Each structure stands twice: as structure tokens, then as C-alpha cells.
Request: fold
Amino acid sequence: MTMKISEIVQCLDAQVICGAEQLDKEVEYAFASDLMSDVLTVKKERMLLITGLANLQTLRTAEMSDIEVVLFVRNKAVTDEMLELARESGIVLIASPCTLFKVSGILYNHGLKPVY
Amino acid sequence: MDLEFNVQGGDFVRAGNASSQIKKVLKQLNADSAIIKRVVVALYEAEVNIAAHAYDGVIRANIDTERIRLLLDDNGPGIPDIERAMTPGYSTASSAVREMGFGAGMGLPNIRANADEFVITSEVGKGTHLEITVYLNQ
Ligand SMILES: Nc1ncnc2c1ncn2[C@@H]1O[C@H](COP(=O)(O)OP(=O)(O)O)[C@@H](O)[C@H]1O
Ligand SMILES: [Mg+2]
Reply:
């Protein structure tokens, strides 16, 4: 079971911040964390990162981890520097006003797999 | 191939820049993506450690057909008890570091887990030296 990014956007009513041309990409796993050191221990490919931590190091972590799509929860501000870094690394950024708990529940129900 | 990067203590804007450059080079060399990930995850945690815990540092990378060797040398407070620092969960990180998503005491253990060879030495009041080697054809 995989989900296209476009399906994730649709079922969460999420906003696409950048990478709109890549919404056909698919993910199989999701990992929800504000702790980047924890994200960096995960080996899975095709994984969505769900996080409330929106800063440059979130994007660096995604870059190093081959994470192609990041979902920010609770209306986090995305700075121009973050946008630039996301574009440079080809990372899709999407955002939802909902809580981490709620988006995780919805995506779990849609079949995205936990890492552990 | 030899590459060199400077890292500034406290600079969380540029932290990760060296790891990003190394990732691009390894991709160009067509290294296996799982191996590239091990290299850059280890290097990134080590680079963040210089930004988080030291005053400044230098990262040197030596790449040949068999392996990549990363040497990190910083000027900083050093680590009084390396065994303790390597223990998962041990951290002296500031709240500024934790706000960046680090400071859980997971960095050094993850560097060791991703490296084929890992050496860490430190002198209190001077600085810390790391050697991370990853074989590229496995
Ligand atoms: N380059 C360094 N210079 C000084 N101290 C360091 C350095 N790297 C790590 N340390 C010490 O080791 C501890 C554990 O490091 P690490 O496992 O990366 O966790 P974290 O950085 O999240 O605290 C740090 O909190 C710090 O006390
Ligand atoms: Mg660390």
C-alpha cells in the first residue's frame, strides 16, 4: 500500500508549499517526530516526515535521509531560506493546520505504514 | 579526491552545508544510495556536534574508489568522558540546540552505527577529533 503525495494533500486538505510538480511521487511509510536525531536513525525509503519542527535543520535532515516529502503541522512559518533549501534538494513541502496526532491518525487509516 | 570545509560553532544556518556538498559528490561518483545515506547521516550528526558543542572546526574528506574517510577536528571544550558521551541519551546540549531538533544524546551513537570504522579522541580545553570511514562497495 502506497499513497501519492497528491492523495495525502487531498485527504488532509493540506496546502502545497513547494514541489507542486512532484505530487505524483509515492510514499509507503510515515514517521512523525520533532526530534531530528531520531529521524536520522530511520533506514526506510519512500517515507513521509510529519513534524511540527520547521527550520533549516528539518530540511537538512530530510536531505540527508533521502526524505522527499515533509508535512508541517499546526501552521508553521516557512522562511525564504527554508524554501530555497527545499527547492535545491527537490523536497516537497506540504502543510496542515491540524495537530500531529490528527494527521497521523488519518494517514494511518489510509494505509501509510509505521516504521516500527 | 580531497575536500575541506570549515564549520562555525553556533551557526545553525550553515550547519549541514558540508554534509550536503559531500552528498552531491558521492552521488556524482555513483555510489550506492544506501551507503551515501550512511555517510551523510553520520557526517551530518558530527557536523551538528561542532556547531552545537565547539567553537569552530574543520571537516576533511578523502575519497577513493574503495572508501570515504572523514576527519573532523574542532577547537572546543573537548569531551571529559568519551564513554559517557557515547552513551545513548547522554547530552549537555543547550536549549538552542534542542530547539533545532538535536540534543537528545543520539548523535554519537548514530555516527558509530553508520560508520564501518569510527575513532573519537578528545582533549579537554582543546578540542575533539573524529575519524569516520565508510567502505563504498559493499
Ligand atoms: N565536538 C564535540 N565537542 C564537545 N563535546 C561534544 C562534541 N560532540 C559531542 N559532545 C558531547 O557529547 C554529548 C553527546 O553527543 P551526541 O550523542 O551527539 O548528543 P547531543 O549532541 O544530542 O547532545 C554532547 O551533549 C556533548 O556533551
Ligand atoms: Mg549531537
Q: What stands out?
A: Residues 33-53 of chain B form the longest helix (21 residues). The radius of gyration of chain B is 14 Å.
